């Protein structure tokens, strides 16, 4: 694992991020059925039926349109399910693809953005973006806890001030995973490249929870962040599937 130290330009750019990556700083920052001829019609043979247990296990609450956006090569999914469209409360669960379908290996309480979720995220709108995004790059103020993802350690991962509920933000960026929404994969989470333009926001991360809503990111407890970092494997092409429950069920 190669640890990259962000350049002065990247550190300075972190101040400008419009998601959680910069929101904290700014705050102080998708055959017909048989007809019975008589009451003595034979029952279907066992071979014509597929039991529920034999069917592949799907991602719970994720509808066909959202499932279709998950690459066929993906073997790890971070599923973030928001409690409601305008709620900052959610659950983050980790799933692994097996021969029998998707198997849940962890589930943790999480926060998302203050105003909930949006299918058209804009800079500063205080919503988390709905969709399916790859996960390739991580970083933080603290040393690499043992992730297989590319990890950028540096002093640019700072979050002074307080959150929306008056909670201190210090330590929020001790560990982060960049969500590849409006960013260039393969770069530091602090990278300022915005393929969709700066108006569409950026700096959307999974990071350490500070006990309150975020500006656009998803946050979980520090121990859970370290576990997630150690579990995600780029060889398994991990993605995050995120949104409120109603939005995901399409």
Overall pLDDT confidence: 85
Biggest sheet details: 6 strands, mixed
The DSSP helix count reads 5
Distance between the termini: 38 Å
Could you say which structural class the secondary elements and strand pairing correspond to?
alpha/beta
Q: What does the overall shape look like?
A: globular
Report strand order across the widest sheet.
1-9-8-10-11-12
Order of helices and strands: EHHHEEEEEEEEEEEHEH
SS strand fraction: 15-25%
Rg measurement, Å: 21 Å
Share in helix: 10-25%
How many β-strand stretches?
13
Uncertain spans: 1-17, 23-52
Helix and strand topology:
Blueprint: E1 3-4, H1 8-14, H2 20-27, H3 64-67, E2 76-82, E3 89-98, E4 101-111, E5 117-118, E6 128-129, E7 131-134, E8 137-140, E9 150-153, E10 176-178, E11 205-208, E12 218-220, H4 222-231, E13 239-244, H5 245-248
Parallel strand pairs: 1-9, 2-13, 5-6, 8-9, 11-12
Antiparallel strand pairs: 2-3, 3-4, 7-13, 8-10, 10-11
Task: Provide an overview of this structure.
The chain is built from 5 helices and 13 strands. With 250 residues, the protein is of the alpha/beta class. The strands form 3 sheets. The protein has a 6-stranded mixed beta sheet. A 5-stranded mixed beta sheet has the order 4-3-2-13-7. The longest helix has 10 residues, at 222-231.
């Amino acid at each position: 694992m190669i640890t990259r130290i962000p350049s002065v330009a990247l550190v300075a750019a972190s101040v400008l991020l419009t998601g959680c990556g910069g929101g904290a700083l700014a705050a102080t920052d998708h055959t017909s059925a048989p007809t019975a001829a008589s009451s003595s019609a034979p029952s279907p043979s066992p071979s014509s039926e597929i039991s529920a247990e034999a069917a592949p296990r799907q991602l719970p609450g994720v509808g066909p349109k959202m499932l279709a956006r998950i690459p066929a090569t993906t073997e790890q999914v971070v599923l973030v399910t928001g409690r409601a469209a305008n709620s900052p409360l959610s659950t983050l669960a980790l799933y692994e693809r097996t021969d029998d379908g998707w198997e849940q290996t962890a589930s943790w309480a999480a926060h998302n953005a203050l105003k909930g979720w949006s299918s058209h995220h804009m800079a500063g709108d205080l919503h988390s973006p709905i969709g399916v995004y790859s996960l390739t790059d991580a970083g933080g103020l603290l040393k690499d806890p043992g992730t297989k993802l590319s990890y950028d350690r540096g002093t640019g991962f700072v979050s002074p001030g307080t959150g929306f509920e008056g909670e201190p933000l210090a330590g929020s960026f001790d560990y982060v995973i960049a969500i590849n929404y409006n960013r260039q994969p393969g770069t530091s989470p602090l990278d300022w490249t915005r393929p969709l333009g700066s108006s569409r926001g950026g700096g959307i991360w999974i990071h350490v929870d500070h006990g309150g809503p975020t500006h656009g990111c998803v946050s979980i407890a520090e121990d859970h962040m370290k576990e997630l970092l150690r579990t995600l494997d780029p060889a398994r092409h991990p993605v995050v599937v995120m949104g409120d429950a109603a939005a995901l069920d399409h």
